[in-house]
Amino acid sequence: xxxxxxxxxxxxxxxxxxxxxxxxxxxxxxxxxxxxxxxxxxxxxxxxxxxxxxxxxxxxxxxxxxxxxxxxxxxxxxxxxxxxxxxxxxxxxxxxxxxxxxxxxxxxxxxxxxxxxxxxxxxxxxxxxxxxxxxxxxxxxxxxxxxxxxxxxxxxxxxxxxxxxxxxxxxxxxxxxxxxxxxxxxxxxxxxxxxxxxxxxxxxxxxxxxxxxxxxxxxxxxxxxxxxxxxxxxxxxxxxxxxxxxxxxxxxxxxxxxxxxxxxxxxxxxxxxxxxxxxxxxxxxxxxxxxxxxxxxxxx
Length: 300
Hints:
Blueprint: E1 12-18, H1 25-33, E2 40-46, H2 53-63, E3 67-71, H3 77-86, E4 92-95, E5 101-102, H4 106-117, E6 121-130, E7 136-140, E8 152-153, E9 172-175, H5 176-181, H6 195-204, E10 207-220, H7 235-250, H8 258-274, H9 278-291, H10 294-299
Parallel strand pairs: 1-2, 1-4, 2-3, 6-10
Antiparallel strand pairs: 4-9, 5-10, 6-7, 6-9, 8-10
């Protein structure tokens, strides 16, 4: 059993899985420590690193009591995030990666909107940059239609609810009670483990607040990125879509969110297929054919 000292005034729990992240993790830790918002904890779940990641983490943890370390065998980022949630103290959750960078007012900006709106989910923009050239490759900002007011009621957006955000766990401040009350978990998959988690959260939100600000920056073109070697794992997206199907039916959201579920699943399938070889795509299609009902398979 892991023992972590609870922080009484902790408002946000940052959850960070890491595996052999020594190259960038110090820069990421400093970026977190530079936040203007201070009532947070950082729970780092080391997934069996074999480099000097642990030594770096322990150095920072000795200097900053808000940094907590959990060690586990190499079982994947999904399970690491689940363990981090289990051990968290905060009222809100925010998932980060060990090579991310953050605007110094990120947490204060997100928390301010959370207090103003009492939203279940607060979404911000983020930017993907090339690690070698620092050039911006892509950025996400919520569509302007979702920012006409301080927050939106999800019941008014059932046809396009899952288009509000991509499935990645980044850039989302999440009310922890929503996760715990509904026992929402990341899947234990080597890729796409966040798909069912993110859209389970969104399907159960009553209110979502969207911010236009780019508050988070994440690297591309590094060897540790899951996305750099996910082509042969394309079957994982089928497993993830099926898991979301099961959960939506459990939450009694499947029928009301069917259209947005299909469109989101198609978008994710297209993304995964683009980085995969034909033989792996055929394998995924066959799994889909045996997994989904005829109508869903044909629409996908």
